[in-house]
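Title: Prediction job returns without error message
Component: structure pipeline
Severity: low
Priority: P3
Assignee: unassigned

Description:
Job completed but the reporter wants confirmation the result is attached to the right record. Sequence as submitted:
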Amino acid sequence: MICSNCSKEIRDTAKVCGYCGHRFPSPPAKCPDCEKDVRKGAQVCGYCGYKFEVAAPVTAPAPREKMQSPELPPEPLITSEPEPVPAVQVGPKSVPSHEEEKSPESPPEPESAPKPKAKPAKIEADVHSRSEAKASKSAQKSLIWVWVLVALIAIAGVFMLGQTRGWFAQEAFAGAIGSWETRDSGDNSNQTLTIRKTLQGEYKLDFHDDFATICEGNAASATMTGTTSTDTLLTRMEIQCELSVNQIDNYPDEYFNVRLTYNPANDTLKDSYGDIWTRQ
């Protein structure tokens, strides 16, 4: 079958053209004029020439035109000139003699940029007081830490000094730490003695005699050490003469064993030779 719209060949049983979309009406089974049977899809009766009704081809709808707004008529041009207004003659205005002529107006000065608004005094005072409070707090903290450090250093110094001088010792002889002096009852020489205590708990004694008989009347010195838990210290004297040879062989060995006893009641020392020592 040939499409009556686009003249393309299509199937005989097609109801719509696949090329242009034309729809075909279903012909009657018989011709309404001669009542003869006709084939399906026929457009004209082959017996009597009767033409069957054919549906109009389907066409795409035309695009809609945009509606244009109605144009307003142009305003009429005024060709006639306005009538002149009669001029009114005004006489010169009399100026009083006591009035001065006005000077021409000067052009206006350019406006300056607006100045920034200053903060209220209350806000500035509040900020200043807060900064001062913070600064004072930090200064107080720093001062506290300085005092703590000074106190620790002082405590450590006192402890070390007390250990060397026997301030914290339990034995009674610790009170004898210091410098002492006496006169030898035998030759009336001046003798000095310095007692100190080490951190290990040992006592060290430095002895000096300005006229030692054992050194033929020359000066002598000795260093002694010892430990004790009572008021008496037992030690041995090793005498060194400054200008002569020691005469140790002329003295018994017990002569060099020294016993020192501290009396806290009157703060004195007594040696094994019977001499009494007082503080310098």
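Comment from assignee: result matches the submitted record. The longest strand covers residues 203-212.
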